[in-house]
């Protein structure tokens, strides 16, 4: 957890200004790889050692697709790099992987579409700068991929940091409960889209939200399930979806499924009481391994089909492996022994509203090894932006939106007054972090090229088009 903040706003502001004197905002602008910088390909190989071997080539293939795709999967590489950059000493609950594609829309428990961070696999307390640097670097990577000139790239990056700076300073002036309840709902998001991008963008947004609201367990059931001997079962689509029944003998699968009651009971114990009652109204029907994302490919991720009042009342849960955060070697180990709980607790701190089925478990896998997992709904109105296809104006607007959203998440769990005082009212920090972002985007392109070279040389295996 972040350290307890000083008692008064004046003390907290003084802390931020003192930190600025010790670590000037301009110091964040430099990026030069250290002489002993770890080989990025070696870092990827080290991550692969704990993943499903036959899926690792899919991860490498997805990361090879573009510099932005590489960036999405390179959180461990950037965490190593960020550890050597200046930091003010003000800590928050970090997302740990706050790039543009890890923001999006989803349903709140009140069935409202809200916009927020939506990936917390790497969450851990750490310097607030690490999250902001990863976000603004992702903006620079996307802008370079679009072929934008340097001046325009830097303007977009500065706007992203300004979105964070202005939001954190505004939140610093608000009452504590007002900060906690602050959120970007559908109406506010529509207002920002219209203001920042105009009527055409608003129309696209409205079409996208309408589509998102159809993306739930019922839609997943129609897409992912089939009838087997008259019973609803998850359909196979190897190597992306492999049902348990296809991974084991019939006898082994029956034994494993028989143990699901114990597994679900352990997960149930991590839910609030009302959610336990809700979960009890569903019964287990089937499970399958499902490949997800880019950086997560190769970790163990299961989907569970649960059925409620009848066979047409589905609930899809995702049970995703949680390993130690990529920030842990540099920011310190989690205070939670269970890495799934680390993810859940961090998510609950940073998000304005979290999935009603968010919980965690520790279980023994098919290979006999214990692993930690967190659990959530597979789909619940989830929508994300196609960052690589954005035009410059849309990228600039989205960067500002994500910057402000990250600030709100940090204000919930850190000292917004101190961070706001550190950044100040001028654009000194905006310019410095834009410099860093552009330089790091170049580094990311070199690392992406190194991945392609390693694949060509046979050092890494890659499977594309999957």
Report on this model:
It is globular and about 65 Å long. The longest helix is centred in the last third of the chain and has 29 residues, at 428-456. The protein has helices at 9-22, 40-48, 56-63, 67-73, 75-82, 128-145, 150-172, 176-181, 186-197, 199-212, 217-224, 250-258, 260-268, 273-279, 328-331, 339-350, 392-413, 416-423, 428-456; strands spanning 91-94, 103-107, 113-117, 124-127, 184-185, 225-228, 231-234, 241-243, 283-290, 301-307, 314-321, 359-364, 370-377. It has a six-stranded antiparallel β-sheet with strand order 8-9-10-11-13-12, with helices on both faces. It has a three-stranded antiparallel β-sheet with strand order 2-3-5. It has two domains: 9-211 and 384-456, no CATH class; 217-377, no CATH class. The chain has 466 residues and is α+β, with helices and mostly antiparallel strands.
List its traits.
19 helices; 2 domains; alpha+beta; six-stranded antiparallel β-sheet
CA-atom Rg in angstroms: 22 Å
Q: What is the number of beta strands? A: 13
Q: Give me the number of helical elements.
A: 19
Q: Uncertain regions: pLDDT < 50 for 5+ in a row? A: none
Biggest sheet statistics: 6 strands, antiparallel
* Spatial strand sequence of the major β-sheet: 8-9-10-11-13-12
- Quickly give the structural class: alpha+beta
How far is it from the N-terminal to the C-terminal residue, by CA? 39 Å
The helix content, as a percent range, equals 40-55%
Q: What count of structural domains?
A: 2
- Write down the overall mean pLDDT: 93
Report strand %: 5-15%
Tell me the layout of helices and strands.
Elements (H helix, E strand, L loop, with lengths): L8 H14 L17 H9 L7 H8 L3 H7 L1 H8 L8 E4 L8 E5 L5 E5 L6 E4 H18 L4 H23 L3 H6 L2 E2 H12 L1 H14 L4 H8 E4 L2 E4 L6 E3 L6 H9 L1 H9 L4 H7 L3 E8 L10 E7 L6 E8 L6 H4 L7 H12 L8 E6 L5 E8 L14 H22 L2 H8 L4 H29 L10
Antiparallel strand pairs: 1-4, 2-3, 3-5, 6-7, 8-9, 9-10, 10-11, 11-13, 12-13
């Amino acid at each position: 957890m972040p350290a307890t903040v000083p008692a008064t706003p004046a003390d907290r502001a003084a802390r931020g200004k003192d930190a600025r004197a010790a670590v000037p905002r301009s110091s964040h602008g430099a990026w030069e790889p250290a002489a002993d910088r770890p080989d990025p390909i070696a870092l990827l190989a080290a991550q692969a050692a704990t993943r499903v071997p036959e899926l690792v080539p899919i991860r490498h293939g997805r990361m090879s697709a573009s510099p932005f795709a590489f960036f999405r999967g390179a959180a461990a590489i950037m965490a190593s790099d960020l550890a050597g950059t200046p930091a003010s000493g003000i800590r928050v609950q970090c997302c740990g992987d706050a790039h543009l594609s890890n923001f999006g829309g989803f349903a709140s428990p009140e069935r409202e579409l809200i916009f927020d961070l939506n990936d917390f696999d790497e969450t851990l307390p750490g310097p607030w700068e690490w999250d902001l640097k990863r976000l603004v670097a992702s903006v620079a990577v996307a802008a370079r991929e679009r072929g934008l000139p340097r001046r325009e790239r830097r303007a977009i990056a500065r706007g992203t940091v300004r979105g964070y700076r202005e939001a954190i300073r505004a939140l610093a002036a608000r009452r504590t409960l007002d900060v906690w309840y602050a959120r970007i709902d559908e109406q506010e998001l529509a207002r920002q889209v219209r203001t920042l991008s105009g009527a055409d963008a608003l129309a696209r947004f409205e079409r996208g939200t309408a589509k998102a609201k159809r993306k739930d367990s019922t839609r997943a059931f129609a897409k992912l399930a089939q009838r087997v001997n008259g019973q609803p079962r998850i359909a196979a689509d190897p190597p992306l979806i492999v049902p348990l029944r296809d991974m084991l003998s019939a006898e082994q699968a029956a034994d494993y499924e028989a143990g699901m009651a114990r597994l679900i009971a352990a997960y149930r114990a991590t839910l609030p009481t009302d959610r336990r009652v809700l979960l009890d109204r569903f019964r287990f029907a089937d499970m399958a391994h499902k490949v997800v994302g880019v950086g997560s490919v190769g970790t163990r991720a299961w989907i569970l089909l649960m059925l409620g009042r009848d066979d047409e009342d589905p609930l899809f849960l995702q049970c995703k492996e949680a390993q130690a955060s990529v920030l842990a070697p540099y920011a310190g180990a989690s205070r939670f022994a269970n890495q799934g709980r680390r993810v859940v607790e961090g998510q609950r701190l940073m998000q304005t509203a979290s999935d009603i089925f968010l919980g965690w478990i520790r279980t023994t896998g098919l290979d006999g090894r214990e692993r930690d997992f967190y659990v959530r709904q597979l789909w619940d109105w989830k929508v994300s932006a196609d960052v690589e296809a954005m035009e410059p104006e849309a990228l600039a607007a989205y960067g500002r939106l994500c910057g402000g959203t990250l600030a709100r998440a940090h204000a919930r769990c850190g000292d917004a007054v101190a961070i706001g005082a550190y950044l100040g009212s001028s654009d000194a920090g905006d310019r410095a972090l834009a410099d860093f972002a552009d330089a790091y985007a170049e580094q990311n392109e070199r690392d992406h090229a190194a991945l392609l070279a390693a694949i060509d040389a046979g050092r890494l295996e890659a499977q594309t088009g999957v």
